Amino acid sequence: MKTALVCGAGGFIGSHMVKLLKKEGFWVRGVDLKYPEFSPTPADDFIIGDLRDPQVCKFTVDRPFDEVYQFAADMGGAGFVFTGENDADIMHNSALINLNMLEACYKRNLKRIFYSSSACMYPEYNQKDPDNPNCAEDCAYPAEPDSEYGWEKLFSERLYLAFHRNYGMEVRIARYHNIFGPEGIWQGGREKAPAALCRKVAENPPGGEIDIWGDGNQTRSFLYIDECLEGTLRLMRSDFVGPVNIGSDEMVTINRMADMIMGIADKKLTKRHVPGPQGVRGRNSDNRLIFAQLGWKPSQPLEVGMRVTYNWVAEQVKKAGKSG
Predict the structure, then answer these.
(1) Number of domains in the chain
(2) Catalytic residue among 69, 115, 122, 149
(3) Rounded to an integer, what distance in angstroms lies between the CA atom of residue 56 and that of residue 226?
(4) Is 125 labeled as catalytic in the residue annotation?
């Protein structure tokens, strides 16, 4: 039986990865500060521990694993990343996790480890035009991310690549572009745009208002969790190191996404544009490299995943209302 370790298994992407690996027949160990919030974990073993502590990492990597997935990070949406109030924690906590986990895997002679980087590491100067952002993998330098979260991701990419060059570790690096889906954070300040907009639409009756930060003309692409996991497994089991984008190339404005969600909910609401953190003006996944290397790229229309996600968030809002 093949074995896998999933770091950050209590979080959104990590918890979904545990489920997928179990379906594939893996023996899976998860590790996180907490269990998944919205459904029980099917992991064979789950360690509650802080990966900022090197002893926890050493304890976690106490046996061989065929595949290691490193999703653990201190992160959130624009309301968490772009305020400036969390910069020290974001850089310190995530960097420690990656330093410790790489060291523990190296000392245990574990070779194959996946690292989830982010499109936030791309230079701000290439993302000022909302209609024509440049997020090709080879445009990362000269570096100028628009947040400390992006700088930490860039540092950690280089850390993994250095372990690959110097110690022969079979690292795989993906730059994720806005992954969304059911069982993700949908309230509390760390949620990202899809879940936040779904919540706002679900909470308001027809004829109400929803707040949108900025003018809503900033562009993004959003990738449904199932396609994210498929791309991740394809990369992990290939001979390609990366870094490579894993994201949709269906770019939409935030206004358009809000309209899409209102259509799914069959509600007419007024969009009220208010001041708030927005990030770069434009970002879209450039999928030429992943298609050239793996013969695959995401293809599911945004609305398909958004429909599933809205229905799930609406159910959470309903439950919260009853319990409140």
Answers:
(1) 1
(2) 149
(3) 30
(4) no
